Every structure is written in structure tokens, then in C-alpha cells.
Amino acid sequence: MHIADGVLSTQVAAVTSGVTAAVLAYSVKGIKEEEIPRTSLLAGFFFAVSLISIPVGPSTIHPLFAGLLGVILGRRAPLALFVGLLLQAVLFQHGGLTTLGANTLMLSIPALLSHSIYHGMAGRQIILRGALVGGFSVTATVLILIVLLVSTDPAFTEGTFSVINILVVGHLPLVAIEALVTGAALKLIAKAKPEILGVQEAKASANRAR
Prior knowledge:
By secondary structure, the protein is mainly alpha-helical. The chain has one domain: Arp2/3 complex 21 kDa subunit ARPC3 (Orthogonal Bundle), CATH 1.10.1760. Helix content is about 70%, strand content about 5%. The protein has helices spanning about 10-30, 35-50, 65-75, 75-90, 100-120, 125-150, 165-190, 200-210, and strands at about 55, 60. A two-stranded antiparallel ribbon has the order 1-2. A hairpin with a 2-residue loop joins strand 1 (about 55) and strand 2. Helix 1 (about 10-30) packs across helix 4.
């Protein structure tokens, strides 16, 4: 989802930009040369799929897959998300430059949490873990978006057909879709290329093959 320029207050935009700068510094620190191609590939994937968007109030509804990026990239996920969002803002005016920090932050937090949740449940079925983080990442992103909008102007919550209510209802199908797709995608990756998901998944796959 993209928050356009002018939607957030100056204070909220400034704070989120500062926090995002810190998150990106954490994401880039210690990056290895062999991690760059995978990060770039998934930045391109995110850039492409999230161009499919439906305007809803001050934001948009579109595929996110922050959970999938988080599981695969771990701490590098914010970097991939930032690059994708920056290119969208510059090339297609999706989102904005003043809200780039906010847009990056509200996807990066769910991505990092998804990585912890997925790998913290090692031993359980991959498709179930994938579905959990897929649905969780969309839900968490919407909650962060709501906090940002309400922090800017409580009027976003007013009325039955408020912007907040429309955003929540509009994203319900996306929660289910991303849960199913993320679960299936991680199951496929674990079967075809388990090392992408980390040492634990690679060992588990090797044990199953014996």
C-alpha cells in the first residue's frame, strides 16, 4: 500500500523517515556480496507485483508479500522494500517521496517480524507457517497504516464509511490471498531450493530425502 505525498503530517513523516533510516542502516550493515543478487531480485519482484493497485482513500490496495520477503531475506528485507518503493515513487508516482519513510517502515516491520515468526516455528509444516506470516504481514501493515493516519488526523476514523473502515474491509480479501500464496510459495521453495530459507530448512529437507 502506498501513502501519497501530503497525506501525513510533517511530524509523522519526519519521525517515520528517521526511524526508517535507522532500520535501513540495520538492514545494510554487514551485507555480503552473495546476498545482493537475491535482495535485488526480490526488490524487483516487489516492485512489479505492487504496481497492481486500487486507490482507496489516501492509500491503495495492492499485493504486498512483505511476509514472503521477510522470510527469505530476513534483515535485508527493508532494503529490498525501500528500493522497490523508491522506484515506484520516482517512475510511476505510486506513493510519494515525503512519505517514502512511512511506506517503507509499515512494510519493513511486518517483514522482520514475519522472519522471526516463521523461523521461530521451525518443525511445523512449512505451508502453515507460510500462510500464517502471509496473513499476519498484511494485517500488521494495515494496523501500522491506521496508526499513521490517526496520528495525522483522527478524522480518518469518523463515520461508518470512514477511510479506516474502508481500508480494513478492502484488505480482508488480501489477507486470505497472501496467506494462501505465501504458504504455497514457501512450500515450493522449500522443496526445490531449501537453502534459500536458511540452514534449518535445508537440513530438514535433507533429512526427509534420506
